Amino acid sequence: MENFKLEKALHIDKQALDKLDKEMQDITGKSGVLEQLEKDVKTSVLTKLKEIGLEEDCYAEDVVHALTAHIGADEQELYDYIEVERNDWQDKSKFAEIFKKIISTAFEISSVKDGFFLKKEKAEEILRKYPPEGTIKYLGYKDVDELLKKEDIVDVMSALRFTETDEWMHEAFDVAYSDFSFKDFEKRSIELRMMGPQWEKIGKKFVAKKHHNVSHLKEFGVIFLNPINQHLPGALFRDFALFFHYFNEISFYSKLFERHANENNFAERLKSLLRGDVLEKSSVEKGEWLIVQRYLWKENTQDPRLSLPRINPEALHWHKGEQDLVEFGKKKHNIGFDFWNNLDWVAGYFPNRLNKNNLISFDLEDNAMSYVSASHKRGEYIRYHQQEALWNELLRRYIGREKMDQLLIENFGKGSIQL
Q1: How much is the pLDDT for 224?
Q2: At what angle do helices 153-163 and 120-129 cross, to 10 degrees?
Q3: Are 120 and 191 in contact (CB under 8 A)?
Q4: In contact, 156 and 147? CB cutoff 8 Å
Q5: Cα dihedral: 158, 163, 164, 169 (round 10)
């Protein structure tokens, strides 16, 4: 295992990282943060290598194989807990029944249950004002009245991005959402549901684009599963973990909706939050950390913002969701999810058998996605969750998690926090 260097993992120049550390020391009074974080990363890696039966001088392929094998074992424990045979999940006639068990288990585990969401009747108003012709045609209905009479409004809203044109989506949402106010929102429970079989064709398009089967509507407080079973090892566990990420993400945005409810520009704020706007910057001031709502590495590995200090809400939602799973595992003697405790920011450099070093993520979701994907067999290792989690962990060590969460909520609309 190659010696772990924080600047290399963060994709930042050593001089720039040292400058950041000096500025953060001036602001917080904390020293030795970088050195301790590097030490803790190495300690965590060595501890987990021992748990999965590997030596420090092992190959990257061995590490990935062992970590993804652990995901496979975790998935089997989940099957056992919900009392479902693996082959049953591939039986369409049992799909709905199994999903009910998953829903029950998910609500048992999740630490958040409700929020402040857009009233469902507002969705009907949008569709009556802007009839979704693509959706109506796809389902074989004559008009929007028949659509709303025969279909669940949440299912329709979930499918729109794959049935309607970009022009329709822009007009229906950008224009319609401009009229919303806090009076159009209400407190209610987060909803976890599976779309009906009539949406299978749309579900296949979603899976082809997203490579997973779960998504959500933040403003409606809904997490939905497409009626598609991917029949892939690890897919159940990966999608199950996604539920808890979305529980926490929906809860987070609900707090933002509520926080800005009484502002005059609430509608514009709402649209910005749903778009995931990120400041276009190539540098930051002393004590400034960007708020980046997306995984920029997936969009452009050369994005200059990847070398700037930042806090990533997506990675924070993953951290909290993964910790929900870990805490659940601690309470159940037959489930070992606690292996992944506080590992989202951990990674190590290992040579492959061609003597090329690879940074291997120890994050649960990176490894769950690797297990389902064939990419890790070709040496293409998923680690973009870990990279953002490492930046979050660095900031946490300077200011603490409670302060970090507070500043994120208070400054989200500004696009950065200023210490």
Answers
A1: 87
A2: 50
A3: no
A4: yes
A5: 20
Sign of torsion, CA 282 283 288 289? positive
Distance (Å, rounded) from C-alpha 365 to C-alpha 384? 10
For residue 283, how many other CB atoms are within 10 A of its CB?
Answer: 9
Cβ–Cβ contacts within 10 Å for residue 202, how many? 23
pLDDT digits 0-9 by tens, 38-74: 999 999 999 999 999 999 999 999 999 999 999 999 9
Contacts of 75 (CB under 8 A, 6+ apart): 233, 234, 236, 237
Q: C-alpha distances in angstroms, 406 versus 9, 192, 412?
A: 27, 27, 10
pLDDT tens digits, 180-231: 999 999 999 999 888 888 888 887 877 777 667 788 999 999 998 877 665 6
Distance CA 10, CA 248 (A): 25
Give the whole-angstrom CA distance, residue 212 versus residue 398: 35
Q: What is the DSSP letter of 32?
A: S
Domain ranges for the chain, please list them: 6-113+190-418
Contacts of 96 (CB under 8 A, 6+ apart): 194
- Compute the mean pLDDT over every residue in the chain, rounded to the nearest whole number: 89
Q: What CA–CA distance (Å, rounded) separates 364 from 335? A: 15
